[in-house]
Design a protein that fits this description.
By secondary structure, the chain is an alpha+beta fold. The chain contains six helices and ten strands. The chain folds into two domains: about 130 residues, Glutaredoxin (3-Layer(aba) Sandwich); about 40 residues, no CATH class. The C terminus is likely disordered.
């Protein structure tokens, strides 16, 4: 499985999702986007697939953002994309692409939305904060909360479809009982 991550090795917020992906047992394709920026089409597609506007995908801190006058609200998306391609440090990071979707992994845990369910125990980020990728509350953050039917918490059908795609088994009840996806219907 090819999982590209547009990464800046000098950035802790970029290193943490990279470590989470590896913790999930996936070796991603690491692209140092400052040295090898995406093409215009790739960048526009990533931004759109992540559900962001161009302004949401541009990095201000530690970049020539203000010097280039990119804070002017009259700047068009095309002008902003041109600046991002000319000065790749303006591209916010990291963008991660998996078969489950594309995310700008800020905060780092957003990458869990597009990774298969993993139960390898807690993971410590560089700042010492612990993340448990196997915690159903984090894995299903994109779905807000399990559906409750007659006192039993069930995982949403959207989450079940994504899990089936990855061949995973999900906790199906609030008691922690697990059932293979084929038995969940």
């Amino acid at each position: 499985m090819d999982v590209p991550i547009y990464h800046n090795p000098a950035c802790g917020t970029s290193r943490n999702p990279l470590a989470l992906i590896r913790h999930a047992g996936i070796e991603p394709t690491v692209i140092d986007y400052v040295k090898a920026p995406p093409t215009r089409d790739q960048l526009v597609k990533m931004i759109g697939d992540a559900g962001l506007t161009v302004r949401q995908a541009i990095r201000e801190k530690g970049t020539p953002y203000a010097e280039l006058g990119l804070d002017d609200p009259n700047r068009s998306d095309d002008e902003l994309v041109d600046a991002m391609l000319t000065h790749p440090i303006l591209i916010n990071r990291p963008f991660v692409i998996t078969p489950m979707g594309t995310r700008l992994a800020r905060p780092s845990e957003r990458v869990l939305d597009i990774l298969p369910a993993i139960h390898k125990g807690a993971f410590a980020k560089e700042d010492g904060e612990e993340v448990d990728p196997g915690d159903i509350r984090l894995f299903f953050a994109a779905y807000r909360k399990p559906i409750e039917i007659q006192g039993t918490k069930m995982i949403s059908s959207r989450a079940q479809k994504r899990a089936r795609r990855w061949g995973q088994t999900l906790p199906m009840t609030s008691s922690g009982e697990t059932r293979p996806m084929a038995q969940a219907r």
